Amino acid sequence: MSRLPVPLILGAVLSSVFLAMALLSFVWTPHDVEQLVISQRLQPASAEFLLGTDQFGRDLLSMLMVGARVSLAVALVAVGIGVIIGVPLGLAAAATRGSLLDEVIMRGNDLIFAFPSLVIAILITAVFGPSAFNAILAIGIFNIPVFARVARGGALSLWTLDYILAARVAGKGKARISAEHILPNIANLLIVQATIQFSLGILAEAALSYVGLSVQPPTPSWGRMLSDAQTMIYTHPMLAVLPGLAIVLMVLGLNLMGDGLRDMLDPRLRRVRQ
User: Fold this and answer.
1) Could you say which DSSP state residue 43 is in?
2) Whether this model's pTM surpasses 0.85
3) 199-227: pLDDT as tens digits
């Protein structure tokens, strides 16, 4: 019996810590993150404030917990948008390779790739205003062509195999073959890509929050915590170090999980380990 890859275990542990923080923040935080107590501003770590307070007297640990919830929620929904829309588009493009539909889908992907998620967010914000929903929409739109390309590339390598040809001879349509035979066999590619896009979604949400285009005050977010701390980075560096470290560890955990899942799900790598 093969062992689980070490990167997968380390990544799962790191990710589980932040997931637990996020889930716990729904029911409990050490202090109210929306309450400003100026008399307690910039307090050092203590028994009451385990990580200290910010320039407005808010508990940093509580803000990190709620910030984890925001980052994970935005990234999860954005990846979900990419999977739900991008995967069917990729499968359809592969099933109709060389057709007008395939060309339209792939050129549409190229068009979206020409605009990074930050640029898409700026365009959306200019019309609808900054919000968490618009950040999700921007990151989700950018994820669609990513999953479409992964699904198309994986599916194209399967359409010429014997069991797919047998399914076509048996009278199955392209849509049914894609759902019953192609999708299950490219699921490992999609799972690994989803993990990677999840980590990129965390970074994108932090970047959008940093420039004020994601979740709005008084809800905390890691990106805005960094933005608020930049003027005091020399006098109170922990205000920037803590959210920055949270982003780094969260992304590191997800990337390690992606590497571990790739090692575990790839048959060639699995044979090497055995």
Assistant:
1) P
2) yes
3) 999 999 999 999 888 888 889 999 999 99
